[in-house]
Amino acid sequence: MTNKTLEQLTVGAGCFWCIEAIFNEIKGIENVVSGYSGGTVPGTPTYREICSGLTGHAEVVQVTFNSEVISYSDLLVIFMTSHDPTTLNRQGADVGTQYRSVIYYHNDTQKHSAEIVVKEMAPYYDMPITTEISPLDKFFEADAAHQNYYANNQTQGYCSFVIDPKLSKLRRMHADKLKTSTK
Q1: Is the pLDDT of residue 182 over 70?
Q2: How many domains in the chain?
Q3: Residue 80 has pLDDT above 80, yes or no
Q4: Looking at the whole model, is its pTM more than 0.85?
């Protein structure tokens, strides 16, 4: 039996339900947890506090992945093409600093990789990329109702109108990176 080389990626791209659904479809992903990072207030934030936009936290996912199956850089490319990294503090109808595009790096190697990927992706967008690249300080796990939201609520309107189109785009652009073939 071989040992897995597990690493973590922490990113935000608007509502964490969307990005969680995307990463759950990628080969090499071991676990995806919705939560919050980047805030400035003490204590453990609640979803209601995060939604106010006053805590400084972003909705994020923390992804545990097998780096022997998929690289950190490949995951960042998927991340950058799964949302609009040119809109400051906004993804679709979700507006506020809690919905910012952000990469929280866990070490200097990840920071360097993030800077390279963002620079390489810039020519593909008409507007400047506003994705924040910051060190991960703390990650707070969201409550159980926010975990695996898409898998548990596929018939909800938000899932149908917002997440399904993002998953369709993922399947078109990154079919070779998916866990299983999808329709």
Answers
A1: no
A2: 1
A3: yes
A4: yes
Check if 15 is active-site: yes
Distance CA 138, CA 103 (A): 13
**Catalytic site residue from 15, 18, 51, 159:** 15
CA distance 91 to 170: 17
- Domain for residue 77, yes or no? yes
Residues whose CB is less than 8 angstroms from the CB of residue 33 and which lie 6 or more positions away in sequence, other chains included: 61, 62, 141, 142, 147
Closest among 60, 62, 36 to 48, alpha carbons compared: 36
Are 2 and 114 in contact by the 8 Å Cβ rule? The answer is: no
Q: What's the confidence (pLDDT) of residue 42?
A: 85
CB atoms near residue 23 (< 10 Å): 23
State both tokens at 32: 């995806």
Query: Mind listing the pLDDT tens digit for each residue in 23-76?
Result: 999 999 999 999 999 998 888 888 999 988 889 999 999 999 999 999 999 999
- Please, what is the angle between helix 16-23 and helix 72-81, to 10°? 130
User: Would residue 66 count as lying in a domain?
Assistant: yes
Residue 183 covered by a domain:
no
3-state secondary structure of 138: coil
Identity at 142, one-letter amino acid code: A
**Per-residue pLDDT averaged across 151-163, rounded?**
90
- What is the per-residue pLDDT for 136? 97
Can you give the CATH number for the domain in which 104 is found? 3.30.1060.10
